[in-house]
Amino acid sequence: MLTAQSLTFRFAEHGSLLFENLNLSISPGRITLLQGESGSGKSTLCRILCAVIPHVIQGIIQGNVSLDGTPLQDMPLVLISQWIGVAFQNPDTQLFMPTVEHEIVFGLENQALSKPEMTEILNLTLRDYGLEGIRHTDPRQCSGGEKQLIVFASVAAMNRPYLILDEAFSQVDPANCARIREQLGFYKQQGKGILVVDHRHVFDQLADEAYCLEAGRLRRID
């Protein structure tokens, strides 16, 4: 379980609190939906839950964030990344390979898989996300929605136990959102713990629990 307990955060010592005494758990086999206005701190919370804050971005954290009982602060980022896959809203920050195919394979190569295994996963991923037709295309030449699909497909292909999806589908068209809903349902059945940040109510019916982050507090949505 990925858990935040009594989490309080500010970016600087004398800065204002972004949120205070926040509690949230991402459980295996469940989808948690997080909503909230722009600037409410949703993306910051996601970065804390995957340890980008404070490992990469500085900030002052009080409380505890743990993965299956181990505080994230005691784990190296490379180990955390083996457990948590993350897709952010701006896909350009996560795309850097020359083709869609290479983008997906890159993460698999870091898992030391055999070439036949990588080829099988690559082909299944391209099929599941409807990317066969652009497999040899430079991601930078793709549309915003296609870029978001490529990032999510690349993250999903690595088969992490937890997924954090921070407005990761904001530019994806309705047909591909339906494809993503189907895949998320499949990942849930596989036992993955999934946090979806979304403001369009596209994934409401998938969620096992939903929260709204407002005025520094989490409010459960019934």
What does this structure look like?
- This protein is of the alpha/beta class.
- It has a domain at about 1-75 and about 190-220: P-loop containing nucleotide triphosphate hydrolases (Rossmann fold).
- Helix content is about 30%, strand content about 25%.
- It has seven helices and ten strands.
- The chain has helices at about 40-50, 50-55, 75-80, 100-110, 115-130, 145-155, 175-190; strands at about 1-10, 20-25, 30-35, 60-65, 70, 85, 160-165, 195, 210-215, 215-220.
- A hairpin with a 2-residue loop joins strand 9 (about 210-215) and strand 10 (about 215-220).
- The model has no long low-confidence stretch (mean pLDDT about 95).
Question: What fraction, in percent, of the residue positions are helical?
Answer: 25-40%
The second-level CATH architecture of the domain at 1-76 and 192-222 is 3-Layer(aba) Sandwich
Number of helices: 7
Name of the CATH homologous superfamily of the domain at 1-76 and 192-222: P-loop containing nucleotide triphosphate hydrolases
Rg from Cα? 17 Å
Estimated structural class: alpha/beta
Count of DSSP strands: 10
From the structure provided, what is the oligomeric state, counting identical versus distinct chains?
single chain
**Can you tell me the overall shape?**
globular
What would CATH call the class of the domain at 1-76 and 192-222? Alpha Beta
**CATH fold node name of the domain at 1-76 and 192-222:** Rossmann fold
Largest sheet: 6 strands, mixed
How much of the sequence lies in strands comes to 25-35%
